[in-house]
Amino acid sequence: MKLIDTRDAVGQVLCHDITQIIPGVSKGPVFRKGHIVQPEDIPVLLRCGKEHLYVWEKDESMLHENEAAEILRDLCRNDHMTASEPKEGKIELSADCDGLFLADAQRIRAVNALGRMMIATRSSGFAVKKGDKLCGTRIIPLVIEKTAMEEARKAAGPEPLLQLRPFRARRFGVVTTGSEVQKGLIQDAFTPVLEQKLAEYGCTMAAHATPGDDSDAITAAIRQMADAGVELILCTGGMSVDPDDRTPLAIRQSGASIVGYGAPVLPGAMFMLGYLEDGRPVCGLPGCVMYAKRTIFDLVLPRLLADVPVTADWLAGLGVGGLCLNCPECHFPNCSFGKGL
């Protein structure tokens, strides 16, 4: 690539797009990379403010911005992702399906720290829809040394930097605790909320039980659902520290291996999660899940439906960003809730 006076560019091949900006009207390329400059193009180029142009001069040690962006694309792309064509040296990846988007922050940081190149992604750990944009890649200069891109490959490592884990619709069961519901003194307002929330992921309720407050009865309801093949069991109510709140004990008695009781998230501090012997999740949902717009359950549910293990360490890491600000108009997930360091 070499720099020449625009007036001397007739017959030369552009090695980058030429962008024209008309304020309030348009912004876009007036000439594309690879265009052979014609005499009538010179006045247009000068009106775009291009007194000089970079034209292609082959150098085997260098890569053009589009070629470098393709390398960054390949470092990022995994299954269920579609790449755009290079445009002004940038390539974007989009989701091929609904799923949980995950980005390896440490390795992406290592690539970006090399300088002169960038990978920018959406927030990791949140649900995406088919067609959603996942990331963009490009180098900063117009050309870059091949050796620099080899350094990027080393920093990224052998595995793709991004994952899109498709959701798998589940048959779920709800164990509604509380003697007041069992006796019909109040209407169960919790279950309809869960049905609506899980329907967004294509899940259907396969079982419902109202065992009251007895821990053995709650445990029996959990085990009955498990024996019937229910894939996700949700226990509602009885999750605080009141003497008659027995749900945590019942979940432990079910044989579930407990990941954690309590999470650094508000709303949702009294959340509980365990896994049965075969890996099926059992959740204890505090009352806030019924009435609050977004809670701990909205952060955990996508992982459960994408078969991504929820660990005690991951739950502990939710503290920074784990405070919902209860905005008058909820914009989740386009907000700070659930987005840690």
From TrEMBL:
List required co-factors.
Mg(2+)
Q: Which pathway or pathways does this protein act in?
A: Cofactor biosynthesis; molybdopterin biosynthesis
GO MF term list: metal ion binding; molybdopterin molybdotransferase activity
Enzyme class per UniProt: transferase
Show where the MoaB/Mog domain sits. Answer: 173-306
Q: EC no.?
A: 2.10.1.1
What keywords are assigned to this protein? Magnesium, Metal-binding, Molybdenum, Molybdenum cofactor biosynthesis, Transferase
Question: Where does the source fall among the domains of life?
Answer: Bacteria
One Gene Ontology cellular component annotation?
cytosol
Reaction equations catalysed: adenylyl-molybdopterin + molybdate = Mo-molybdopterin + AMP + H(+)
One BP annotation, GO? Mo-molybdopterin cofactor biosynthetic process
UniProt record similarity statement: Belongs to the MoeA family.
The record describes the protein's role as: Catalyzes the insertion of molybdate into adenylated molybdopterin with the concomitant release of AMP.
What is the protein name given in its UniProt record?
Answer: Molybdopterin molybdenumtransferase
